[in-house]
Write a structure and sequence with these properties.
Layout lengths: L1 H26 L1 E2 L15 E6 L5 E7 L6 E6 L3 E2 L5 H9 L3 E5 L13 H16 L6 E7 L1 H12 L4 E5 L5 H8 L5 H4 L6 H4 L7 E6 L7 H9 L5 E6 L7 H5 L1 H13 L5
């Protein structure tokens, strides 16, 4: 009996060690790249580069709108690359907003390996580059899923004119505990993204968008984050939409909500 218990303990410890060492491969799902030129994604698109404080050179696509004095920085989720965010960029352009799409380290052909600290550094570099563009006077943040957590983290350091979060979560341990209730994920996770601890300190107009059939970030989790935020804020629930459904990515309901919000927030005049 003692031997059997000992074997089980060893197996459990080995399993936990594997989860610990491989956890970031279970969190980040980058497309390797390379990507085509920005002009093939949208007319007038520009290929851009900027460098983080830790000397990681990142690539992005900039879609300026002539005469626009406001821009949106888009924070991607944990999968794919910036090419998957072109529909939201195109929609924001139609609203009169310039847009910067960028990829985190390790994504879309960028060097480096993703981590919470790394993505925070990437976000700072992207925001700095965008703020330096001619004519850009106001910047809004748009974050989706994991990118919503990155956007919240940056907003604490550098407040935007407006903050838009699609399918945001309270913290990464909360998401992990939802999907892996049999694992001690709250103890194991190195990357935390504690948006619930940060959101209350923000004093910027907030839009939260969630789908009621989201099986990746359960809608009540997005609602909980919203409830912890200060006014002014707006919550938009997209009926029948799952995490990666087109209706939640760039559907008519979502775009109507964004259009009204950017006007009310002062991002566009």
């Amino acid at each position: 009996m003692r031997r059997a218990v000992g074997v089980l303990v060893i197996v459990a410890l080995v399993g936990l060690a594997l989860v610990w060492s491989l956890q970031r491969r279970l969190i980040y799902f980058p497309s390797p790249g390379p990507l085509p030129p920005a002009a093939t994604a949208l007319p007038g698109g520009q290929d851009v580069n900027f460098t983080t404080d830790d000397q990681i050179r990142l690539a992005g696509w900039y879609f300026p709108v002539e005469g626009a004095d406001a821009a949106v920085l888009v924070f991607p989720g944990n999968g794919g690359d910036r090419s998957m965010r072109v529909p939201i960029a195109a929609a924001l352009n139609r609203m009169g907003l310039s847009v910067l799409l960028f990829d985190y380290r390790g994504y879309g052909g960028n060097p480096g390996t993703p981590s919470e600290d790394g993505l925070a550094a990437d976000a700072r570099a992207a925001a700095t580059w965008l703020a330096e563009q001619p004519g850009v006077e106001r910047i809004g943040y748009y974050g989706e899923s994991l990118g919503a957590a990155v956007a919240v983290g940056l907003a604490v350091e550098r407040a935007p004119q407006a903050l838009m979060l699609r399918s945001p979560f309270t913290s990464l341990p909360d998401v992990g505990a939802t999907h892996y209730p049999w694992l001690p994920v709250r103890w194991l996770l190195r990357d935390r993204y504690p948006s619930i601890e940060r959101i209350g300190s923000l004093r910027v107009p907030l839009l939260v968008i969630a789908g009621d059939r989201d099986d990746i970030v359960p809608e009540p989790m997005s609602r909980r984050l919203y409830d912890a935020a200060a006014e002014p804020k707006r919550y938009v629930l997209v009926s029948g939409a799952g995490h990666n459904d087109l209706a939640l990515l760039a559907g008519a309901h979502v775009l109507d909500a964004i259009r009204g919000f950017v006007s009310a927030s002062g991002l566009t005049w």
